Amino acid sequence: MSSEPPWPAITAALATSDRLPRPLHTAVQRHLYNLSFTNASHEPLPRTFRLPVFGCPHGQRERPKTVRVFDLFLFSFELDVLEMRLYELNATVDAFVIVESPWTLRGAPKPLVYQRYASRFAAFASKIVHVVVPTRDLGAALNESRAQWDSDVFYGLQLAMQAAGWERLRALAPQPNDLLVLGDVDEIPGARLMHELTACEPSAHELPLRLQSAFHRFTFSHRLGDAWPHPVVVRFDQVPSGFDFVKFPSDLVKSTVRSGFHLNRFGPPALQLYKHFANGEGGSVPVGGVPLLRDPNRVGGRLVARGIRICCPGDAPIRPTVPRNLPAVVRQNLPRYKAYFHPAVYKATVAAVARRLEPDRRSRRARALKQSRSSARD
To answer: Do residues 286 and 273 make contact, with C-beta atoms less than 8 angstroms apart?
Structure first.
């Protein structure tokens, strides 16, 4: 990693503009790489994860799985969110196509992160297709990003990376009826819905299907509602032009359902600041200036604790509450993800999860007892 950024030059640049010149922007991002981007351990989970057993809704029946499911998304540094996604979807997804590039969506250089921490995700190695988009495949979009450095919005690199991921997915030979999950890494479908889509008939949902996800910001204790309109689940033959859109076209959506989680800006403040710099929308320096850039986890942490985005100090605070629902891997490993709960409601969350898990435990014990009695009779 590089040495400390030239803070006097950065201070001078910010005296006249809220957007740093590209070399100074890159220097700040390299500084952020040295800070913590994960709240959980880099080690794999030390215990066996058990996804709840789902049945089919009333009026539907179980059927053998006849389609494959592909999960295609871009990845940068979101290690904890990636872990939650893999565990939530592993029972139904056949291939996770993780697309990464040595460039941010704003056109600044970045390290390749997934491979460095691949051992953390070893349990999913047989399903993960890690696509590294080389610089040569991004040439035109990179040149355009440099020409539009001062723009508030630039999606050229995102679309180019998605196109590379799409081509790799096509090489996996999906069939017309196979299912695709299209969205960002932090837009996670619920495991129950994915079970219904792949193992229950007749289907209650017409595709393309838009999920209205529970919207959490920073932590599971900060909730902004239940109607984040992403991701989408589609058949392969419903996207004939490929993944060439920033968000799936609304006019093609046939139905909607509430399911899943949008884990917006999950991670330490350093990660949140990095993503603000790296996104296609953004890149300007948030209020807080050099002190925030130098020590985002301390300076920005005070904002995040109140539910306020680092990029936008004018946000209204979000009151922390006990979450109604959590990904299964989080429910079963609350200490690992403790940083993703507000301290004021963590103990109450632990108690609430214990109450909800007890019926599941009784149900598992009853099934085990029934099976043992059946075996004894045989």
So the answer is: yes
Rounded to whole angstroms, the Cα distance separating 264 from 110 reads: 21
E strand or H helix that includes residue 33: helix 22-33
Q: What spatial distance separates the first Cα and last Cα of the chain, rounded to whole Å?
A: 65
Is residue 275 packed enough to be buried (19+ CB in 10 Å), middle (13-18) or exposed (0-12)?
A: buried
- What pLDDT, on the 0 to 100 scale, is given for residue 228? 95
**Using an 8 Å Cβ cutoff, are 337 and 80 in contact?**
yes
Rounded distance, CA 46 to CA 180, Å? 30
Per-residue DSSP letters for 151-200? Answer: -SB--HHHHHHHHHHHHHHHTT---TT-EEEES-TTEE--HHHHHHHHHE
Q: What is the pLDDT of residues 29-74, one digit of tens each?
A: 999 998 988 888 888 887 778 888 898 998 899 988 889 999 999 9
pLDDT in tens, 105-163: 999 999 999 999 999 999 999 999 999 999 999 999 999 999 999 888 899 999 999 99
| DSSP reduced 3-state for 99 | strand
- Report the 10 Å Cβ neighbour count for 48: 7
Taking CA 135 as the corner, what is the angle to CA 137 and CA 21, rounded to the nearest 5 degrees?
A: 125
- The pair of three-digit structure tokens given for residue 120, joined into one six-digit string: 């953390």
Using CB atoms within 10 A of its CB, is residue 43 exposed (0-12), middle (13-18) or buried (19+)?
exposed
- H/E element, 73: strand 69-74
Average pLDDT rounded to a whole number, residues 345-350: 96
> Average pLDDT over the chain, rounded to whole?
90
The whole-angstrom separation of Cα 238 and Cα 252 is: 9
Main-chain dihedrals φ then ψ at residue 109, nearest 5 degrees:
-65, 150
The domain locations on the chain are: 7-269
The number of residues in the chain equals: 378
**Architecture of the CATH domain 7-269:** Alpha-Beta Complex (3.90)
Report the DSSP pairing between strands 223-228 and 187-188.
Answer: unpaired
pLDDT at 1: 46
**Whether the Cβ atoms of residue 287 and residue 160 lie closer than 8 Å to each other:** no
H/E element, 260 = strand 255-264
What the block records as the tokens of 170 is 């096509």
